[in-house]
TrEMBL record:
Keywords: Coiled coil
Alphabetical list of SUPFAM superfamilies matching this protein: DinB/YfiT-like putative metalloenzymes
Name under which the protein is recorded: DinB family protein
Pfam families listed in its UniProt record: DinB_2 (PF12867)
Record has Coiled coil as a keyword: yes
Domain DinB-like, chain residue ranges per copy: 12-150
Taxonomic superkingdom: Bacteria
Annotated InterPro entries: DinB-like (IPR024775), DinB/YfiT-like (IPR034660)
Coiled-coil intervals: 83-110
Organism, scientific name: Bacillus glycinifermentans
Length: 174
């Protein structure tokens, strides 16, 4: 088992800055490109990350710590951001994400103590019994998944333009 809270927080703290460096100031053609019908743009992904900060990670961690297996987590709507952010800029979304993440990492530090049992459990509506360490580890892996997704979506915008080099660019062949 590799989970270490301190190391998890290292990634969680860096995600907003990573996305800000990656996306701030890019033209809308970059921010809004996607991989085709029913896929997400970088704009959509950042909106999704905001929804996770509001309605997923900390509420579920709190439930594990306070209610254990007595209540099931509320389902998380992974698509709600698609209707909510049309009038915002990517910079506004990135700023909101950074603020929420800062608050959530502070909350995480306040909730978790050196004696916290990371094997404590809660009930996921789809997976059943899940452990605290799995919830926090998933939060980290989720961040990295979406950073990777954004990089892939941006790269695929030039998929046809790279010519024969596409054969050497794994990101365009995934």
């Amino acid at each position: 088992m590799n989970f270490q809270l301190k190391e998890a927080i290292e990634i969680l703290e860096r995600t907003p800055k990573t996305l800000s460096y990656m996306l701030t100031g890019l033209s809308n053609s970059w921010i809004n490109c996607n991989e085709g019908e029913a896929t997400w743009s970088a704009f959509d992904v950042v909106g999704h990350l905001i929804e996770g900060e509001k309605n997923n990670w900390i509420p579920r961690i709190e439930m594990i710590l306070t209610k254990g297996e007595t209540e099931t987590f509320s389902p998380f709507d992974r698509f709600s951001q698609l209707q909510q952010n049309a009038d915002k800029t990517i910079e506004e979304l990135l700023s909101e994400f950074a603020k929420l993440r800062r608050e959530n990492v502070e909350t995480l530090r306040r909730l978790i103590h050196t004696h916290t049992d990371f094997e404590k459990t809660g009930v996921h509506p789809e997976f059943g019994i899940v452990k605290l360490r799995e919830q926090i580890s998933t939060w980290v892996a989720h961040d990295l998944t979406h950073i990777s997704q954004i990089a892939r979506v941006l790269a695929k915008r030039y998929q046809e333009d790279v010519g024969p080099w596409k054969a050497y660019l794994r990101i365009l062949n995934s």
